[in-house]
Amino acid sequence: MKRAAVIKAAGHPVTIFKLCSPRCTASYESSPPVRKLLEAYESGQVLPIPPKKIMQAYGEIMGQCKDLKQGAL
């Protein structure tokens, strides 16, 4: 979910799905800018996105996941 938060914070679309188990998963496009962003994130490079924005996106994603688990969405 943290990768999805980085992608969402960068302005790319992210879709959250509820799995059969009590977990959620994220889906996002596999365009060159997204792959470059993920490579930078996974290698520990400094991202061109403020950490606060990433944490806000993470909170939104986790909120969507919680709503999906509870059947609110």
Please give a structural write-up.
By secondary structure, the chain is α+β, with helices and mostly antiparallel strands. 53% of the residues lie in helices and 14% in strands. It is built from three helices and two strands, in the order αββαα. It has helices at 2-9, 32-42, 51-70; strands spanning 14-18, 24-28. It has a two-stranded antiparallel ribbon with strand order 1-2. β1 and β2 (24-28) form a beta hairpin. α1 crosses α3 (51-70).
C-alpha Rg, in Å? 13 Å
Spans of at least 5 consecutive residues whose pLDDT stays below 50 are none
Helix content: 40-55%
Our measurement of the CA-to-CA distance between the termini, rounded to an integer number of angstroms, reads 18 Å
Portion of residues in beta strands equals 5-15%
Main sheet summary: 2 strands, antiparallel
> Which class best fits the helix and strand makeup?
alpha+beta
Q: What is the N-to-C succession of helices and strands?
A: HEEHH
In what order do the strands lie side by side in the largest sheet?
Answer: 1-2
Question: What is the number of strand segments?
Answer: 2
Q: How many H/I helical runs?
A: 3
Shape: globular
Overall average pLDDT: 91
Task: Describe, in short, the structure shown.
The protein is an alpha+beta fold and 73 residues long. It has 3 helices and 2 strands. Helix content is 53%, strand content 14%.
Search tags:
73 residues; alpha+beta; two-stranded antiparallel ribbon; 3 helices; 53% helix; globular
Strand-helix topology:
Blueprint: H1 2-9, E1 14-18, E2 24-28, H2 32-42, H3 51-70
Antiparallel strand pairs: 1-2
Helix pairs in contact: 1-3
